[in-house]
Write a structure and sequence with these properties.
about 350 residues, alpha+beta, 5-stranded mixed β-barrel, two-stranded antiparallel sheet, about 20% helix, about 20% strand
Amino acid sequence: MPSSNESVDLTTQDEALWRSLYVLSTMPSAVNEDTVSGVPAANNPRPLRGMGDHAEYWVNNSGEAFVFKFPATVDLDAQFDRTGPYYNLPRTGLDLDALRKMRAQFEIRLLDINAQGTLPEEAIRCSLSALDLLNVLHGEAEEARNALLPRAMYPCDNPFWRWYPQGEDEQFSVVVTTNPLIGNIPDNGHSNVPRLKRGDIGKGDSMQSPSKAKAAAMAGGAPNGGEPSAGGGTDPEHPPLSELPDPLGCYAALITKHRLRDARVIAPNIRDGAGMIIRPQEYRTKLKTGDVVFIECLLKLTSKLDNSSKQEADQPRGGQDWLQEVPSHAKEHEVVAGRVHH
């Protein structure tokens, strides 16, 4: 396998990829054999202030979210891929809460150790070390939290990785989720009445009844059906929810039912080779299976509670077939992408 100091016969495009991977994979923030030393084994994972959910996060020695980087390839045809058109939304029970948690979900593969002559040794080693790192962190947390139990009685959980054990193509993969894709969704719990201004006094009937007040508040418009708020304009950086592909009419139904005129698509930090943002609706056209990406991510642990529990928890980010197979109270280990560079 050629290293950075050996001569490699590559095309211009392959050479650019090779050099980029070498530079990125040898940065201090890329995974290597010493990366785990920056993550304390004790009290990890744990709740982290400012993350906005009830999940637990792996933190570094400074008490901040542990962030690491590694190269991999994308598999858009894999079992756990959720890159459109409805991403990780459940097939039934669509509501505002599900929409708030909607994320894209990528299944990625480690770089092929046999990719001689096309990928630098440093990149392959970095990629393989990432799965070793996930294995170690998962194992440490599992053993610490179940120290008083025999291994046969450990609670069921889903580790960071998935596996395909059969056939010639047996391999591990890692499921990576993005941040939420939709923003500016109204909170029904705090939208009981519209926010009026002094000039609105006596000019509408939105305060005539609680139902009219709530409808006006959710619509975000002026009293008595006046002009919409400034948030309803067109912003190419954050297009309205209605611009997402909607072959089954799911988004249209939610927009109509909950008056989501101002809901916006928030594109995660996923960029092409030129540094341009790839929008969520473009994942299936601008990315293809086998593309090499460089991922920056953090790790979190969430709990899936059964329907009888009154406690609210952040739902694991795989809300279709595979999520339904997770037993009640299972622990879900997640890899959350902060940046993906294609």
